[in-house]
Amino acid sequence: METQAFQRIYTRIEQLTKATCTLNASGVGYEELALVHGRLAQVVKIMGKEVTLQVFAGTEGIPTNAEVAFFGKPPTLKVSEALAGRFFNAYGLPIDGGPEVEGEEREVGGPSVNPVRREQPSELITTGIAGIDLNNTLVTGQKIPFFADPDQPFNQVMAMVALRGQADKIILGGMGLTNDDYLFFKQVFENAGALHRIISFVNTTENPPVERLLVPDMALTAAEYFAVDKQEKVLVLLTDMTLYADALSIVSNRMDQIPSKDSMPGSLYSDLARLYEKAVQFDHGGSITIIAVTTLSGGDITHAIPDNTGYITEGQLFLRRDTDIGKVIVDPFRSLSRLKQLVIGKKTRADHPQVMNAAVRLYADAANARTKLENGFDLTDYDERTLEFAREYSGRLLAIDVNIDTEEMLNVAWELFSKYFSREEVAIRKDFVDQYWVE
Predict the structure, then answer these.
(1) What is the pTM for the complete model shown?
(2) Which CATH number is associated with domain 8-70?
(3) Does domain 76-341 have CATH number 3.40.50.12240?
(4) Which of 111, 229, 289, 295 is deepest in the core (most CB within 10 A)?
(5) Pairing of strands 87-88, 198-204
(6) Kind of pairing between the strands at 138-139 and 104-107
(7) Are 15 and 30 in contact (CB under 8 A)?
């Protein structure tokens, strides 16, 4: 990024910290970009004429007489159909060796959609993962996080959702990805022949952490172009929002702001809400659905990041390793999609709600049986059957590597019901039992 004619250029820095510099300047806007000693920076604070810039790569080696050139605009992204199939960095510049995208330049980080223009979500989004489609069905315009421990294969799950998700465009925002993760996503998308509908914005561990703050805005600006201008169904995948929040924390700490809970900035709720509230269903059919990963520190769901996330989003998907089958499953007890009732049984088969409830109830009975076993109590015949059912239900329906459509998921559930239980024990409406019971 070179300086251009008519840019405001200053050569006197009043104060330097590890990541910020402060100078006196006029006519500068909040979030405006600048070059400080050749390094990209962004305005994060304005008090009168005193302007503080966040230098993305850090300030080490910058002298107080360094040249500061303001761009006169906040970060922008050029949007067009040519974004599809490409990989970009946090500034929207290509990192896949391809040409720069030509298109209409749009500011990133704008406001979310006026509530008056929002429709009630009513379209189903399927992922092929039964732990989601059967028990926690997703709806277009929904915002929902995966809660996962850092050692869970959440990026693999994200890649699966990207490949199987029934959407016109999938936009991946990767924050703090290792090089291996970046190459994994690239390889998986290329091998599956799905690149034509996937757009990726990536910040790796080799890039400055503060750049992560730009990634969700880039991804959501691209999403708004396809959802609003092209009236397409867009699925935005953000991983990992904990690393995004850590970057917020870095900035606020370096600006000497007093931290709130868990050393997070006091603005964490509004910072996260600003992004998640971009999820929307439009009346013209376009939509933005947001699925984000929030990694948990030591499984702590009360930490400020998952805690605030839970207030903003419409449920959560919880990954855990099932020791019985040795696979990662979508936990039916700790997962919840608050909007599923808008589509299950309406956009899916009529027996879906009853099958879902019966399966989770029987799985809960198995959990009780396991507690009895661990405490040395004798198991009844029913307890034994629930344990067998739970093992097969986990392996054939809850495991994240299951890839079948919703109709088949329901058929598998009926097969398991009739294998382990009587019609009375399953307690599903008689007309459904008559129609789907497997003799």
Answers:
(1) 0.90
(2) 2.40.30.20
(3) yes
(4) 289
(5) parallel
(6) unpaired
(7) no
